[in-house]
């Protein structure tokens, strides 16, 4: 258990949308009502088919979601399985978990059908045997509570495949089919009969009979299997072990990734690495249609229950929605997982989107809020050929200016000895709402470019914009903007080299500017050099052998006088720029060093003994502010601080480093994660956020007119001195909102709600204005004065009356009772006199 308020590692996006086959809602054909559900990491995402927006985020599983099925008894509910060993029942329209069934072992796939009431089928690891799995049935117990046990397990098939695509149920659950390697098993439930069929394991003439997927015909006794060599086999008469037959369909040149029958069974869909969806008619190889150029290999195919739509899940985290006539409808693009994220994690200052490698030769701009790709920018602008062994150009470096108006990219070929390099400068066009190419520089360095950064400060204007690149050719280069004198040039400015620096012929590896832009730090193997950015004079050098410098960064704000560096040999060093001396050092194998742009904090991620640990510190203090060991199971390769729109309210002092920015990191499996102090319930869409959508809707002209009239009337009352009565807004009451917006089928009884509703209508006495409070305090003081006046009245009567004779010569001193009466007169409203 995680203590309340503790920091949690959250899988926030980028998770594969192909963890399980997608599921369409039963009413997907209705306009505005169609939904498609995907497994994405620990969550189930509910997308609108029409708007492509994320409508709901179903979260509650503690591990990856592996299976989803609509409840056969209620199509507004969804069952989901997970590696955490639980099965959850959801009301996915409202995002409410209804039941949680704890099974125990890891659940790798989930199946169910209408005839097996209260029974679900799951794939689990076999006890005591490694990489061996079995299909079991689980009886879902009935009970009043929300957390129930699902311990009644019955083994159906042994030695099955772990993938959801390796098992299928036919003829409304009369039999189940399993494929693994070159063996096909068919188990008939009523007869309790198991038939096993095997193909040849020999790979002759390019053939490979290994099974890759299996589906069953919805009406007939027919099984379709996909194979590693691209063939599709249609099996019949499998009730008899010796008289089975199969026919073959062949178009795919490589493995068949998935298959799906249409609702009536007259069409068969297949997909593979060719990025082409093939539609086979009437089980004939002569009648087939194609939907090509879907972008990436097809991983899964799902069909809607009414046959109006189907969707394909792709290896690049894209979902394609396709009509029944095989016409492309729309797509949902998640975080593309490229082969290698060479650009690192970069934040776009304009959109606050994460920018990194996408499709080959492209930059993807990924929205953290919607977990979708905003757009993709073609940098290389060359056709990528999917063929092994070809040396092709790819994107390796990217940097933004501080305002996001300029983008610098570096592309290079895969040649090791003589790479083809290009440095491109892009300018953001407000008219085109995209980046346009401004300058292309061929061979900016004689060897691979290792790093680059902008110097961009608002107060210095355009002249301050400088780009620095470092390379393995042992130099760093300074690039500046110059006016283009060519009259035929379309651009008014371009970029050119202004300065070339080096240090003892060492390879330049990293570079960064100080916060004010006055200093440039460049690392040359084991040495860090500091240069004046105006004169390009070498100011000082720092060295902490052994090991080359892996990362460097300047401190910020109150820590701007420090320079931080990490070495290959596991040292984290902090140098003082004023004294030119080592301030402190720590023995830490830092693989990621990331400063927060809005605070003094710096995050360092270490990798030791197959464990990623996080250290957050300020350069002026050698003791870390926060330490999180065993951050995640995977190795963290990249990290980035993303500024928040508004500072977050954080109660704990040790988490203050997360107040202005949020830390995101990418693992070696390309899972995007973050750290959050909020609980799961707070992070998911609460009712207040759902109500905010309704409250943010545009008001009607009548409500605008009525609101204006009320404001004018209130202002007139204030001008006339009338007391303004502040009535309580019943609609703003949480109790009333809960009553009006909670789904009817989960509301408690009316007798229970009556008391809460009536109390919400009452005006609280605690909400008093400052004037009312002052009046009450004054009345209490007046009561005390009345008591003292009664005690002093006798003494006043016996007072000397000689002062009355001098009335015309001196100011009369009022008694306390007279002062009290005068205060009352001052408070009276005489504004009615102005009417005369």
From TrEMBL:
Molecular function per GO: RNA binding
Gene3D superfamilies: YVTN repeat-like/Quinoprotein amine dehydrogenase
Annotated WD repeat ranges: 58-100
UniProt domain WD repeat-containing protein 75 second beta-propeller: residue ranges: 345-670
Any one Gene Ontology cellular component term annotated for this protein: small-subunit processome
Gene Ontology BP term (one): positive regulation of transcription by RNA polymerase I
UniProt KW keywords: Nucleus, Repeat, Ribosome biogenesis, rRNA processing, Transcription, WD repeat
PANTHER family linked: WD REPEAT-CONTAINING PROTEIN 75
Name under which the protein is recorded: WDR75 protein
Source organism per UniProt: Phainopepla nitens
Gene name tied to this protein: Wdr75
